[in-house]
TrEMBL record:
Region of interest called Disordered, as start-end residue ranges on this chain: 316-340
Membrane-traversing stretches: none
Domain of life, per lineage: Eukaryota
Organism of derivation: Vanrija albida
Protein name as catalogued: Oxysterol-binding protein 4
Length: 388
């Protein structure tokens, strides 16, 4: 006996159905980037997009252990394992917490987010610095470092979204560079490109994310990993599936496959376990209490909006959100009138990233740009000066 087909809007709260219907109609007639669209309250998240880079370090033990690999191949495999470990947190845990994927709050230009993971078992402290460096288009820059372990991640990301009829397609722009200081001296660099997303379940009112197409990790040592993502019906026949091929030059060294939300194996589905997402609990970022944060820090900036969303008081959330957005529009008008621009506080923008260009040349993907700009962390001394 076949299951009854799910009706459109089946998961939408009754008092939100009118707004949801209007939202779906506007999606159907919208062309180009959807990031500026106003979403109905029930799919709004109380979390700003500036908090998302924290997902990179929610497994701080694995991040720290990268530099402990004794060979180039072992370190490359550790980077791949750490990267796969970040995916569940980045793309599915909001469904577990809030019932479905939610649209994050659009950060304001200059918004900041700071966090850390304390030193546990001698692994060293991991620090996170995030700044919203552009509003149109939205771009978030981040820097994550464990000084003791000798690992640091610097990157930026943006999103271009479009509606494809039943789902939203998200092309992530930007890249990350991972630096690993070797105990014997020297340094390795790993370029990490970002996967594309497909947000399904929109017409039912219960969005969820599926990764699609490919991404890559390319090391300065000559090793690289090509990762392909598929949904249900491919590879293992399960949702959230991936297959990664680790190579050195044109030679395949090893393969990995499975679910990035569950278990993956080495050398085939019957091989030894590569990573088990359920066996390694993530560690939430530690953030200062809101009352100790600066006015530009995310949780203080959006506190009233977030409280409204969490409490179901969408009217208050909407009013407070409009106040913030209108204030930002006025700032941009004032800057335009004065012929000035907003100064970046934690990062410096560069038009071309030579390390990206060198490593990206190894990726055999015509959709991957040959050159990209970047945002370089100014350093902790500059951070302290700006905070003073």
């Amino acid at each position: 006996m076949s299951a009854t087909p799910k009706e459109e809007g089946a998961d939408v709260p009754q008092d939100q159905k009118a707004g949801w219907t209007s939202f779906i109609k506007s999606l159907a007639h919208m062309t180009g980037d959807l990031s500026s669209m106003t979403a109905p309250p029930f799919i709004l998240s109380p979390v700003s997009l500036t908090e998302f880079p924290a997902y990179w370090a929610e497994h701080p033990e694995q991040f720290a252990e990268i530099s402990q690999g004794t060979t180039e191949e072992e370190r490359m495999e550790r980077v791949l394992r750490w990267f796969i470990a970040t995916l569940k947190g980045q793309y599915t845990t909001r469904n577990e917490k809030m019932g479905s994927e939610k649209k994050p709050l659009n950060p304001v230009l200059g918004e900041l987010f700071y966090g850390k993971w304390p030193d546990t078992n001698g692994r060293g402290e991991t620090d996170l610095i995030v700044e919203q460096v552009s509003h149109h288009p939205p771009i978030t820059a981040y820097y994550i470092e464990n000084k003791k372990a000798g690992v640091a991640l610097q990157g930026h990301s943006g999103q271009k979204t479009s509606f494809t009829g039943t789902s939203i397609y998200v092309k992530q722009s930007g890249h990350a560079l991972l630096k690993v200081a070797l105990k014997a001296g020297g340094e390795e660099t790993y370029l990490i490109t970002l996967p594309k997303l497909r947000i399904e379940g929109i017409i039912w009112g219960s969005p969820y994310i599926e990764l699609t197409e490919t991404s890559a990790i390319v090391s300065s040592t000559g090793y690289s990993a090509h990762i392909e993502y598929k949904g249900k019906g491919y590879f293992s026949g399960k949702a959230h599936s991936f297959k990664a091929v680790l190579s050195r030059g044109s030679k395949t060294v090893q393969t990995y496959e499975g679910q990035w939300t569950g278990v993956s194996t080495i050398g085939g589905h019957k091989g030894p376990v590569f990573y088990d997402a359920d066996a390694v609990p993530k560690q939430e970022v530690t953030v200062k209490p809101v009352e100790e944060q600066g006015e530009w820090e995310s949780r203080r900036l959006w506190q009233k909006v977030a409280d409204g969303i969490r409490g179901g008081d969408y009217e208050t959330a909407g009013k407070e959100k409009s106040l913030i957005e209108n204030e930002q529009r006025q700032r941009r008008k004032d800057e335009a009138a004065a012929n000035t621009t907003w100064p970046l506080r934690r990062f410096t923008h560069i038009e071309e990233d030579p390390e990206y260009e060198q490593l990206a040349a190894v990726i055999h993907d015509k959709t991957q740009p040959t050159t990209e700009d970047a945002y370089v962390f100014k350093g902790y001394e500059e951070e302290e000066k700006a905070a003073a």
